[in-house]
Amino acid sequence: MVTARFSSATVFLVLIVGTALSALPDLGYPGWQCDASLYQKSKKVPTSAHSVRFADIKVIGALGDSLTAANGAGAPKGDPLAVILQYRGLAFQCGGDNTLDEHVTVANVLKKFSPNLMGYSTGIGSANVWEVSKLNQAVPGAEASDIITQARALVQIIQSHKEIDYKNDWKLVNVFIGANDMCAYCNDGENGGHSKANWKQNVITAIQILKNNLPRTIVSMTGMFDMRMLREIDHDKYFCDGLHTFECPCEKNKAFTNDDISAACHRYMDAQLEIQSSGIFDSTDDFTFVVQPFFNGIVTPPLKPDGDVNLDWFAPDCFHFSKLGHANVAKHLWNNIVQPVGSKNTIVNLSDPTIPLNCPDASCPFFRTTKNSVDCSKYMTA
């Protein structure tokens, strides 16, 4: 995918596209409310990652690539040049522009429970512009090997920030990676650097850095998606097809068939679940790792009622998510977060805008983990 950096050279373009943001389709949930008990913090700050209420989370961050940096999310229709801009405030995991009434992101939902939440991104800029990125350390073009560096950067920022008590504040770190690995996978397959084994080890290494340095942290990893879906978007859309040749060569490699790309993506999905089920990140009580697999079974892009691909979901390059796409993905990610491990949706209908934004389960009001999903009662606190 396209690699981008924010600099003074883009300021003029920012000014031009800023006025167009409000005109783009979006999704919000005005007046969204849950049971009043769900907005209460724990009586005492929990010591277990399996007893963390959503109101207990004080810090949010993210690791990933251009999808997490939100490249092109606010780009005007028909302006692929604006895809170089990183609209981090709109990013589905960590964006904080507007409120939940206007735009769904995981951070905007969490702000309903934890109004003083910090770390979410606002505005347009790159990972090294603190005023914009905050704790969203995603870098366009990143592969799994690159989130190791991002993890170190996130640790350094959190540990040195005067407003974060890194030893005691509960932190949520969102991770989404794999698309760029898959864009190069066809070159070496399971015998090279983008193999399932290497990808898995890179993810483990990055998460281990977080575990070693950030107590009281929950890592939520968005499941890999089946990139054969991109070929559905390209069909009969020559502009999209041409851009994807540049952005994702393996997606345009005819020798890398639909079945090939799908199988490779599912290897990464399997790797994520293997990491979760191994328990290697549940060896201490103050850290955990959870996969949110709602993307796993989707092979059809969002469609209009007439059956055509709904390009409102996508930036002008037909690859990255638009403002609306980020909001819709955020909705499904949040719904996965509040579902128990083992009962999470592994496929959702991207074409249905009426699917609700769900509330946590009042009988198990915690961030759902491998352990509290088995028996929530042992983790109940006042």
Offer a few descriptive terms.
globular; Rossmann fold; disordered N terminus; four-stranded parallel sheet; alpha/beta; 382 residues; 11 helices
Count of helical regions: 11
In terms of DSSP E residues, the strand content is 5-15%
DSSP strand tally:
4
The CATH top-level class label:
Alpha Beta
N-C termini distance? 47 Å
Identify the CATH architecture. Answer: 3-Layer(aba) Sandwich
Class by SSE composition: alpha/beta
Q: Which regions contain 5 or more consecutive residues with pLDDT less than 50?
A: 1-20
Estimate the helix proportion, in percent.
25-40%
Strand order of the largest sheet: 1-2-3-4
Radius of gyration: 19 Å
Instruction: Look up the CATH topology.
Output: Rossmann fold
Give the ordered list of helices and strands. Answer: HEHHHHEHHEHHHEH
What's the average pLDDT? 91
Relevant CATH superfamily? SGNH hydrolase
Instruction: Kindly give the count of domains.
Output: 1
Q: What is the molecular shape?
A: globular
Keywords: Signal
GO molecular function, one term: phospholipase activity
Signal peptide: 1-22
Organism: Caenorhabditis remanei (Caenorhabditis vulgaris)
